[in-house]
Specification:
alpha/beta; six-stranded mixed beta sheet; 13 helices; about 45% helix; about 15% strand; binds 4-(N,N-dimethylamino)cinnamoyl-COA; Enoyl-CoA_hydra_C; ClpP/crotonase-like_dom_sf; Enoyl-CoA hydratase
Length: about 260
């Protein structure tokens, strides 16, 4: 397993070793995201995606206080507009992590998820939050605005009024409000966050792997298509899955009242 400076990566024992745990590891800087974190995260997600034995990943933050308190303001303060533009600063996140990771992954938000931290959490397939989690897009206070999808993903998740209020005031949303607003799938006690996230990941990792990728693809299509187009995509993917060995096994296992044994094809 690669040796990283700013993150740790672990293959967990859950689901016979099929769960990857990625932890942002700059606790003194509240796991602020800098260029090194970006580079290492992209590498870790690519390795997760490429490893056929890994079937679900969890991304969390180290320490008790933060998932990630945003992009590293100290690094950004040194940059001129031309640097942001010419380096295409932070732009690869969306394409490299979101588009290339076809397998499921969960964000386990253990504290502050602000700015780029909130945006990173929203790139996950879903968020499980500790009751201490706090979400926000406070970039306006720094004279800027969300740059990694916050204005788009937050608005799609919680609607215009709340997203607009959060972007314009920079106020944070606590875990209870985030669950009520559909930003997070579930809120759990702080101490059991990782256990709950890993348990959920193990549950996903024990599903037929091709069907997991297909379910993710279908749900994501809802954000990119009209209803009619989305329904066609859903039907086509269903029809493809119907030809899989795992479909035959899954239905036989149901009829024979036993657990399915998946081939992932
Ligand atoms: N960057 C760098 N260091 C940070 C940081 C951050 N975002 N957040 C916290 N830290 C550091 C603090 O500087 C402090 O370090 P020392 O002073 O001890 O060396 C340490 O973490 C502990 O923080 P505090 O002392 O401030 O802790 P508190 O409990 O008092 O406050 C806080 C916690 C989370 C409320 C506070 O730290 C805070 O407000 N942090 C900043 C939150 C924020 O504004 N986040 C948004 C950053 S802007 C782009 C794409 C994306 C982005 C930009 C461009 N392109 C595509 C172009 C993203 C932008 C952002 O995320």
């Amino acid at each position: 397993m690669a040796d990283y400076e700013t993150i740790t990566v672990e293959q967990r024992p859950e689901a016979n070793g099929a769960v990857t745990l990625i932890t942002l590891n700059r606790p003194k800087a509240l796991n602020a995201l800098n260029s090194k974190v970006l580079e290492e995260l992209i590498d870790a997600f690519a390795a997760y995606e490429a490893d056929r034995g890994q079937l679900c990943a969890v991304l969390t933050g180290s320490g008790d206080k933060a998932f990630a308190a945003g992009a590293d303001i100290k690094e950004m303060s040194e940059k001129a507009a031309a640097d942001f533009y010419l380096e295409d600063f932070f732009s690869p996140w969306t394409s490299e992590i979101v588009k290339k990771t076809r397998k499921p992954w969960i964000a386990a938000v253990n504290g502050f998820a602000l700015g780029g931290g909130c945006e990173l959490a929203m790139m996950a397939d879903f968020i499980i939050a500790s009751e201490n989690a706090k979400f926000g897009q406070p970039e306006i206070k720094l004279g800027v605005a969300p740059g990694m999808g916050g204005s788009q993903r937050l608005t799609r998740a919680i609607g215009k009024s709340k997203a607009m209020e959060m972007c314009l005031t920079g106020r944070m949303m606590d875990a209870e409000e985030a669950e009520r607003s559909n930003l997070v799938a579930r809120v759990v006690p702080h101490e059991s966050l990782l256990d709950e996230a890993l348990k959920t990941a193990a549950q996903i990792a024990s599903m037929p792997p091709m069907a997991a990728i297909a379910n993710k693809e279908m749900v994501n299509a809802a954000f990119e298509t009209s209803l009619d187009q989305g329904l066609v995509i859903e039907r086509r993917i269903f029809q493809i899955l119907a030809a899989s060995e795992d479909k035959k096994e899954g239905m036989a296992a149901f009829v024979e009242k036993r657990e399915g044994k998946w081939k992932g094809r």
